[in-house]
Model the fold of this input.
Amino acid sequence: MSPHAIIAPKAGGPEVFEYVSTERPVPGTGQLLVKVAAAGVNFIETYQRSGVYRVRYPFTPGSECAGTVEAVGPGVSGFAPGDKVATAEGSATYADYTLLDADKALPIADGVSLEEAGALPLQGMTAHYLINDSYSVKPGDTVLTYAGAGGVGLLLIQLLKLRGATVITTTSTEEKAALARAAGADHVLAYEEVPDRVREITQGRGVEVVYDGIGKDTFENSLKSLKTRGTLVLFGGASGQVPPFDLQRLNAHGSLTVTRPKLADFLLDPEERRWRSAELFDLVAQGKLHVRIGASFPLSEAGAAHTALESRATTGKVILVP
Ligand code: NDP
Done:
């Protein structure tokens, strides 16, 4: 059977996805041909599919996967057919086969399954740079983050607890609240309880840092939850993008810092990639970090996976399995 891939011929809803026959790609200089075992589904692909982020159509989504190296292109060293690799920085990973730049391939630690390896790198390395670099979390800090049962959310909570922080999060349902608590969250609130309950929990002070991946609906309350000189890390817009903002308000609210980071700027070279991914894979292998795969869809049902993610129906990670 010829290999298959998902394409979006134009911008639109999840129904634009088509499952089509393709040629098996041939690796160019510095590239690996990877047989995909699991492709991670991420929010960014919904923005690309719908046209919120500009891409060229026809478009095959996907930047995250894990799989087996089938062939190596000219000039590749350090990888051979049969190796298991993962990536957060591939392209067109919603496919049976994908081409991957060898310097963006991550070795997978023993004890980590290909499903876990396809589910972890993008959201895991995001959580890693958020707590280490966007704001460096210290033991004893109190942190607010939203969507505590989501993909980034569950990983973030676990990493924050390993760091010794107190974690406040929100979820939209009681089932999701139970998952966030099981991951270690100290306080699980409804969205409408922010910022008042956050102020109560922190005896009026506010939190050191808010990690906000929801954007439009939460941004104002994130500002109101911070302590003087606190940091708001706006890392996504699951509810929509935040409109233009008057910088003078940072002064009025207590000399606040706002940053709007993206993962690519925290994976600048192979050393940085290896550092972040090795720490995460090692934590999984040691049983200290749990990767929850909340839903696994056949590759041909990528549209259903997007519908589930956009309608808040998912918990943890969503993967596609060819
Ligand atoms: P999640 O698994 O967290 O899914 C999104 C969750 O957001 C939902 O499950 C829902 O949880 C919550 N939510 C609140 N309001 C809405 C809304 N209006 N529509 C949809 N969901 C809503 O997704 P990810 O972990 O993949 O991504 C989380 C965020 O992180 C996204 O904004 C994404 O773009 C961002 N991101 C940013 C990166 C970066 O480097 N800047 C890298 C990776 C991800 P609940 O029902 O509990 O409210």
